[in-house]
Design a protein that fits this description.
Elements: E1 6-9, H1 17-28, E2 33-35, E3 42-46, H2 50-60, E4 69-71, H3 75-81, H4 87-96, E5 101-106, E6 121-125, H5 130-139, E7 143-144, H6 159-166, E8 172-175, E9 186-189, E10 196-199, H7 205-211, E11 216-217, H8 219-224, E12 245-249, H9 252-264, E13 269-273, E14 284-288, H10 293-309, E15 314-318, H11 327-337
Parallel strand pairs: 1-8, 2-8, 4-6, 5-9, 10-11, 12-15, 13-14, 13-15
Antiparallel strand pairs: 2-3, 3-7, 4-7, 5-6, 9-10
The protein binds threonylcarbamoyladenylate and magnesium ion.
């Protein structure tokens, strides 16, 4: 186990003022605070403090050309970070903020390029989680926050996941329990002639299309060509991966057989399914996830973290349906299955 950071429990129904003040103190001093959001835990720093932002990259072991998301309270604050705020950005922000949607726009000249991985765009999101909102409000500034995991690792959906991956590389963890969505925000680029989903996420394509009929969903192309490079920096190949090798298998029966076969070679094996798996040896740890995309997404990372903690050598996953409601889960499973 890595050295423990300070962990403070906060009730999301009534965030404790002292805990929020402590988090703001750490941020003002240039420190890192792990913050609960409705999607996953974020690794927060003052976005406009270049040194603090550099610490985020160091703590995660993340390449410096991978841009970060800026977290703000509302559209008004987001606009101030953007060189231009297209009408489309207003439309989605008004319909879906606060919530698990990240909007990519042109970066304002005053916003440090380091946050944007050196690029000229910026990603902004207004989270709905009461604790993170209270921190941003008390700080009075935007908070940069990637998911609070090591580079390419599994996103944390509990404070314990953050501690296990980052140890005392983070100064303070605000623990508000398990994240509601359990999967990251949807990233949509509203620059240019049409809107594009760069990362499918907690806001489904149908909900986005209701506000942006012109939407293009890149993830569908990627599903046909796994491993292909993306337009969004920091989105290449392996990502969102457990420590154990993850193998995606199309049919339930083949998934079960593969898990049994791998277990016969002596390793403990995880088997993640959406229906009853049938009889398997005790060394196959079966995890039955819900049949619906939302509830499945809510439990996916937690299940993979649990299997990693149980010391499995491999995780066999029965693949998910190919319809659009599953696109975020399908995307994460494909990336997790990429070899390093
Ligand atoms: O739900 C979430 O989005 C969580 C919580 C903490 O807010 N954050 C998160 O951050 O997932 P991170 O850094 O792990 O992922 C950010 C994603 C990456 O896929 C990155 O490529 C994309 O957003 N992104 C960030 N800035 C971008 C930009 N300027 N242009 C294109 N994509 C960008
Ligand atoms: Mg991440």
């Amino acid at each position: 186990m890595p050295p423990m950071p300070r962990v403070v429990a906060v009730d999301p129904r009534a965030p404790d003022r002292d805990a929020i003040a402590e988090a703001v103190g750490v941020l003002r001093a240039g420190g890192l605070v792990a913050l609960p959001t409705e999607t996953v835990y974020g690794l927060g720093a003052r976005a406009l403090d270049a040194k603090a932002v550099a610490r985020i990259f160091a703590a995660k072991g993340r390449p410096e050309n991978h841009p970060l998301i800026l977290h703000v309270l509302d559209e008004e604050s987001a606009r101030r970070l953007a060189a231009s705020w297209p009408e489309r950005a207003s439309r989605v922000a008004r319909a879906l903020w606060p919530g698990p949607l990240t909007i990519v726009v042109d970066r304002a000249p005053g916003v440090p390029a380091a946050i944007a991985g050196g690029g000229d765009s910026i990603a902004v999101r207004s989270p709905s989680h009461s604790v993170t909102r209270a921190v941003i409000a008390a700080l009075g500034e935007p908070v940069a926050a990637p998911s609070a995991n090591r580079y390419q690792g599994l996103s944390p959906t509990t404070a314990a996941h953050v501690v296990a991956q980052l140890g005392d590389a983070v100064d303070l963890v605000l623990d508000a329990g398990a994240c509601e969505e359990g999967i990251e925000s949807t990233v949509v680029d509203v620059r240019g002639a049409s809107a594009r989903v760069l990362r499918p996420g907690a806001v489904g394509a149908a909900a986005l299309r209701a506000v942006l009929p012109e939407l293009e969903v890149e993830a569908r192309l990627e599903r046909a060509a796994p491993g292909a490079l993306r337009a969004s920096p920091g989105m290449g190949a392996r990502h969102y991966a457990p420590r154990a090798r993850l193998v995606l298998v199309e049919s339930l029966e083949s998934a079960r057989s593969l898990a049994v076969e791998l277990a016969a070679r002596g390793a403990r094996v995880g088997l993640v399914v959406r229906e009853r798996a049938g009889a398997v040896p005790a060394s196959v740890l079966v995890r039955e996830l819900p049949a619906g995309a939302g509830p499945y997404a809510h439990l996916l990372y937690r299940t993979l973290h649990d299997l990693d903690d149980a010391g499995v050598g491999a995780i066999v996953v029965h693949d998910v349906p190919s319809d659009e409601t599953w696109s975020a889960v399908a995307d994460r499973l494909r990336r997790a299955a990429e070899s390093a």
